[in-house]
Specification:
- The structure is a single chain.
- The protein is an alpha+beta fold.
- It has two domains: about 1-65; about 65-164, Head domain of nucleotide exchange factor GrpE (Nucleotide Exchange Factor Grpe, Chain A, domain 2), CATH 2.30.22.
- It contains four helices and six strands.
- The protein has helices spanning about 1-65, 65-85, 90, 95-115; strands at about 115-120, 130-135, 140-145, 150, 155, 160-164.
- The strands form two sheets. A three-stranded antiparallel beta sheet has the order 1-4-5. The chain has a three-stranded mixed beta sheet with strand order 2-6-3, with no helix packed on it.
- A hairpin with a 2-residue loop joins strand 4 and strand 5 (about 155).
- The longest helix is centred in the N-terminal third of the chain and has 63 residues, at about 1-65.
- The N and C termini lie far apart (about 115 Å).
Length: about 160
């Protein structure tokens, strides 16, 4: 009988070990699940950030893709405006001058529709991020030598100015 008691006690001890092992296994699996869930959430967040970054880069590309062409057009636009400013008094009322004036107005409207805006300078406080001082040392702009422009808020050509 004592052999049977020992066998039963051994069986109980083995069963207790199995119960502890199952509890330990549950804890281990719960920890692994938590770790896997954390990794999943991190990967998901990284993917979402990647998609946002790609979307922003694509939007920026679309916004500024035509910057180079617009910069070249701005030179022509400025020359057309200058031709009107420096035209003879006799010519200012001619059909030719009216045609150039109309073309300048169309050009201006086209630039605005495409996100281009002229930088305001005369009488404004000097802003080195948008203006280039040709001469003078004051803080206010006295004269504009060449207009500056922004494309969707980004300076594509700084205004050249004379300070007071």
């Amino acid at each position: 009988m004592s052999d049977e008691k020992e066998i039963k006690q051994d069986d109980v001890a083995v069963e207790e070990q199995k119960v502890e092992t199952v509890d330990e296994k549950i804890l281990r699996l719960e920890a692994e699940l938590k770790d896997a869930n954390d990794k999943y959430l991190r990967a998901l967040a990284e993917m979402q950030n990647f998609i946002k970054r790609q979307t922003k880069e694509k939007e920026d590309f679309m916004k500024y893709a035509n910057e180079e062409v617009i910069s070249e057009f701005l030179t022509v636009y400025d020359h057309l405006k200058l031709s009107l400013v420096h035209a003879d008094e006799k010519v200012k009322d001619s059909a030719w001058a009216k045609g150039v004036e109309y073309t300048v107005r169309q050009f201006h409207d086209l630039l605005i529709v495409n996100g281009v805006e002229e930088i305001k300078t005369v009488g404004e406080k000097f802003n080195p991020a948008e203006m280039e001082a040709i001469e003078g040392t004051g803080e206010k702009v006295a004269k504009e030598i060449m207009p500056g422009y922004k494309l969707n808020g980004k300076v594509i050509r700084a205004a050249r100015v004379v300070l007071e």
